[in-house]
Amino acid sequence: MLRIKDITTYLESWAPSSLQESYDNSGLLLGEKTDEVNQVLISLDITEEVIDEAIATQSDFIIAHHPFIFKGLKKIGDSHWIDRCIRKAIKNDIAIYAIHTNLDNIHTGVNKKIAEKVGLSKTSILQPKKETLSKLTVFMPVENKDEVLNAMYAAGAGNIGNYDHCSFQIEGTGTFRGNEDSNPTIGNQGEDESVQETRCEVLVPTYRINQVLNAMNEAHPYEEVAHYINPLSNINQEVGAGMIGHLPQPAKTKEFLLSLKKSMNLDIIRHTKIVRDEISKVAICGGSGSFLLKSAIAKSADIFITADFKYHDFFEANEEIIIADIGHYESEVFTKELLQDALTKNFTKFAFRLSKVDTNPIKYL
Predict the structure, then answer these.
(1) Which cellular component appears as one GO term in the record (predicted)?
(2) Which of the four, 44, 119, 121, 297, has the lowest number of CB atoms within 10 Å?
(3) What class is the 110-127+240-326 domain?
């Protein structure tokens, strides 16, 4: 029997809710975590048509990229589409979960999927976030060092870019004396004890600190584990907005744009003046990405693929880069496949249905 919390716990281990932007409203929007799940429908948006599809397919849990509740609701009637969605979902006992900017902000999320569709390699976060890392320092007996560190690594500690199991270690002497309520692993109550210990320092994503501490305490032989945590202002290369990468080989600009239309299934591309004969380095951002234009230029991208550019913002390309606005829906619709693939790999005996509803509110003649 699968419950909502089983699915959401997995999703939040992959794209932690703490990584969503302050304006966002990701998470379980309707339903109870303990509710049983029989059929899951994956959609980009929540609309009345999607809820009707859930009813028709007997799906009792919808996982969407975009939340449909952003602001506080003072009343729920039937005059607005959000009201009607809420009422229909509740009446039909359908739970709804959104995984939005937290999925945008991880390196294996929305932008990685777009990079795969475009054919990019050597990808990295376009605008990495600061202040999402902590340094954990722990002291342990020399002979227990590997056991404790491996447990911490498995829980998410010690990763730096393309390297894992990263730590800094110093050996020294640790001293302690247990009181009458203690149960020391080494030595006796009321007696001073000296032990050869290793001081280990590792980087930990702040959102994983509790998991790492639990693993550390479980593996550590001491009754009381000496450790401390320091928040860092370092840039975290694994978390942030957008992505940048390289084509396997340079492509003529017009040929690249035509291939982009095909790979992303586009009806139209709005773009600025073609100021590059060839495209090699590509910046991307699913959804509204105009805020990343300066980062794309600073990292010498030839083209920036995103959506929702306003008229005057196109001028900011300043003939330093090509802006390709492919549409919000079009840039993120493959997020459905991303979610389905991830969930299917983790829940191998459960089927996850992709919504067939075209939720794009923008139409073209």
Answers:
(1) cytoplasm
(2) 121
(3) alpha beta
